Every structure is written in C-alpha cells, then in structure tokens.
Amino acid sequence: MFTADWFFGLDKALRDAGLDSDAQSFDEIRDNLASRHVCDPTEFATACAYVILAGGFSQKTAKKIHAKIMDEIFANGADFNSLILLFNNKNKINAICKIWENRDDLCNKYYRLADTDARIGYLSTLPHIGKITANHLARNLGEDVVKYDIWIQRLGVRYAQNPDMMAYINNGKLSPQIKAACDDMFAHLASETGMPRGYIDVVLWKACQNKLIKF
User: Fold this and answer.
1) What is the separation, in whole angstroms, between the first and last Cα of the chain?
2) What is the CA angle 140-35-124, rounded to 5?
3) CA–CA gap between residue 153 and residue 151 (Å, rounded)
4) How many angstroms separate the most distant Cα atoms in the chain?
5) Which residues is 15 bridged to in the sheet?
C-alpha cells in the first residue's frame, strides 16, 4: 500500500467502474486543483449547497437531491416553502436559502482572504458547514486541501502503523495526532504520484467508500 502503483490502481478501478466523481469528475477536480477556477457568486453558492446536502448520503443520492434543489432555485429563487417539499430537512434548506440570498457578499469575502487557512476558517462559519465539511467545500472550490473524514483518518492510522491511534479517530473532533499521520500520508503519496493532495484525498475517500480499500 501507499505506493504510486497502488494509488493509480485505485484511480483506474474507480474510473473503470464509473465512480470517478464527487461534485465534479475526477478530471475536473484535478484540473481545478492544478489551476483554480475563481467562482462567481452563483457557482460559489451552488458548491456550498452540494456539500450541505451531501452529508449523510451517498454521492449518487446527493447529486440527485442537489440537482432538484438547484433546478428549483434557478427557476423560482431560494424559497424555503418550495424547497422543503423537495427535501424535508429544515436546517439544511434554511442554510441553503441563507447562503443563496447572501451569495454575492459571501463569495466576495471568501476571495478577499489571501491565506488558504483563513479561507477554510471562513467557510467553516457558513450556515451548516463545520470544520470537516469546510475542507470538502474548499477542495471543491479548488483549494489543495483534504477532508479529514473517518475514512481518511483510518488510512492515516494504517500509514502510521500505530494501531493504538485508532482510539483517537473522531469524525467530530480531529485529533492533532491523527491529523499529523494523515498529513504524513498525503505528503508521501504526493511525492510518489506527483498528484495534488486534494486529488489524492478524493480518490482515497472514494476507494474506501466503495470498499476497494478494506479495514
């Protein structure tokens, strides 16, 4: 494990199975990480809506829900009463409406921040977007960062070859020890493959989700 051949084998297996996407395709994610596309406010709010809806769902389901929500917004605006009929989660729909209604200001504030950490911190303050989801959103916006979710934390522990660290895995509060192990893993794989950390992240996460990597 944790070699270039292993990583590119996972990449190929996902592509061959038609599983090479998150909000965007693998190729779009990689290209955006290599040369970041600056989003307009509508694109920014659309990206926010996706990560808000994605929590707790498979990517296939999240994309279907997201498409329905965005079609309604583009047709009739961010009307809470209409959107709740499509997806019955008041907190998520309320967050999407707030972000959509304030998308110009929110997007402009994001791009005015010159530091990546500051931008991620800012994203984590948006409605219904916490620290881990902020990394997911940042990566979808073209930041070369990783989402330290439960799968990646488990892989980091495996890379560190320290089973005792399993006790520190927490999807709600990231342990500094776990983060360091994950960062070491990504630094190693980036050196081995020449790929951006954010791209390595999405391939590994997708491989775990689809049981190409088993624990």
Assistant:
1) 13
2) 30
3) 5
4) 53
5) none
Read off the pLDDT of residues 94-110 as tens digits, 9 standing for 90 and up: 999 999 999 999 999 99
Token pair listed for 56: 């707790």
Q: Residues 208, 11: contact at Cβ < 8 Å?
A: no
User: 149 near 120, Cβ under 8 Å?
Assistant: no
CA 127, CA 192: separation in Å to the nearest integer? 37
User: Residue 187 to residues 99, 109, 198: CA-CA distances in angstroms?
Assistant: 34, 30, 11
- Residue 80's contacts (CB-CB under 8 Å, 6 or more residues apart) are 93, 94, 97
Tell me: pLDDT of 58 over 80.
Answer: no
Give the integer Cα–Cα distance in Å for 13 and 7.
10
Average of per-residue pLDDT across 167-177: 90
Provide DSSP, 51-102.
HHHHTTS-HHHHHHHHHHHHHHHHHH-S-HHHHHHHS--HHHHHHHHHHHHT
Q: What are the tokens at 118? A: 């500051």
The pLDDT assigned to 61 comes to 87
How many residues are there in the chain?
215
